[in-house]
Give the backbone structure.
Amino acid sequence: MKNRIRRTLATFLVLLFFTTGFGSAKDIQEVDQKRNQLIGYMLDKELPVIHFSHKKMDESLSMAAFDLYLKQLDYQKRFLLSSDVTALRSFALSIPHNLEHGSNVLPETGYDIMKEQIGQVEKMVDQIIAAGFDVNSDEVDETDPEKVAYAVNLSGLKERWRKIIKAQVMHRYLDLAEDQKIAEEKLPDNELWKQAKEKVTKVTKDFFFRLHQETLQDHYDRYFNAIAMAFDPHTNYFPPNQREEFDIEMRGNLEGIGGTLREENGFIKVINIIPGSPSAKQGLLQAGDTILKVAEKGADPVDITNMRLGDAVRLLRGPKGTEVRLTVKKPDGKIEVISIIRNVVQIEATFVKDAVIDAPDGGKIGYILIPSFYRDFEKSKGRNDARNATDDTRNAIEDLKKTKLKGIILDLRNNGGGSLIDAVKIAGLFIKSGPVVQVKDIKGKIQVLNDNDASIEYSGPLVVLVNQFSASASEIVAAALQDYKRAVIVGGEHTHGKGTVQAVLNLNKNIRASNSKEISDVGQLTVTIQKFYRITGGSTQYKGVVPDIVLPSLFQHLKSGEKYLDYSLPWDQIGTVKFTLFSGKPIDLDMIRKRSLQRVKNDPGLQAIAQEAVKADGRSKQTTVSLKLADMRQSIEEAHEEQKIFNTLFRNNQTGLYEDEQSEIDGISAKNDVPNWKERIKQDPYIGEAKQIIVDIK
């Protein structure tokens, strides 16, 4: 199959070099048209063959690709008119034909329309700011793009931007008014409004300046990625200059804040918080947050909406010890300003940690935190001393067993996955030899990955903690231990639901050496090629793992997980493999559920989380905001007070437990502000309930 693709590709290359490119002379100067024609052709021929789903380049996939393309073009509906969308939609069904024949007109048309509309809107904004606002009028703005239509004409578009700019000026004014409470020199109210308008003017000018930097090639690259993502959300096209931006991690050696970021529909989203990083230690920035603005200490915030991911990352990075202030939108819609001191991430903090904690009825319980399933594959080649999660977990168990334990809590919360080898081996530490996970490839071949070690490192009571950000390898471990009835799984309503495997495909390998000088680097694809299945046959894809004991979660209202991603692969099942249930004391789940439910009702911490979750759900559904100054002031004050109280109690419970005795937050020593990670275990209500369940298992 692959050879046939390469022969077809070679023929296409010959035709490519002996035909003229399409488009205007200016377009040809801006982009390498032959290169883009080749990339499009390779996507058309490669993806249907090697992707797990066997999707075809048909009408359904064309519309999916167009839907994704339109979202990345103007998801917030701030630039395109409905007539522009209609014009672009006319090219949707032609995508497969255009890819095959090298006539990719959609990205060029989209680029031309957006360029014109950006210019139009920029003029509007200048007029809007100059005209001023009635801040006491009763009007609201809808902030959810899904609930608004594209503007019909320029007047409608201008009205949309009037509300956007009004809200920004009012927010800026209220920030300045708050600063005045502690300022030595008091300024009159009209001066505060003047400064607010000036600052918003500067921010918007910077915003439009960045939009004008967008090139035609940028539009091509996002068009190609939209086509890839129409197969599934984890299949992506990466141009050469974005390879390092694949799940960018601002780790300690970059001297940043420590977060995994991704660009989604024009927003910069926090996908994960790196264990041990400044963000993890500070505790307020969380997975699921949207970063709207970035500011150095004492400088004006820079709006990073619609900014390139790489540019946003560069703003977030900076020298150790410097302060960066992030304007963040929480999943429930609340806006917060979070201050983080940049630092070097201590690598030790990404590794397995263990502790002995007190059992509620006396005695001791072991606690093991696995932040990720790490393995240094480069160092592993030809040697056995490369550090990995399996060895560290085994060592942690051995260390804990020196104390007489009532049970062990295995914490996989916020663990996004990692090495499949280590997922299988770590599950094997708690069971006798047997199957752990099934892997199915594109041809339907099923491989069973087994734990071949008949020994058990620990056979006592076991509780596994998970949440909505436990994904991939974490789900394999949780599912296996659940299927063997080896452990009680405790967490939110479900885990993430990523049950697929991706391979990296270097597209340059498809180009013959004789043609490599004619075509520059064409980038790479990450393609979904396999799918995980539990030993009982059900996939971990889409549904994730449903815990045995479901506890209240701040994120239960959040549409977070594979099932909420566009065009994610569905859940399905295959045959069960033969395995032997754990031979230890049977777990009475009905009894444990009843006792847990009663405890949750009486636990102040979990009840506070449950109550806040209800409020968060209400806020997330209330997407209209008042543009009346008094209402906005009241809303901000109430949000600040609620957040202040809640953060005091639970700032670290959702982000993990990492040592930060030597860190500094906002100039205050963390040693005096936040207890070390072992002390925080005592404050975590989820660990508290896990301890009670250990006792119930006994």
Notes: Residues 1-29, 245-254, 651-675 have pLDDT under 50 and may be disordered.
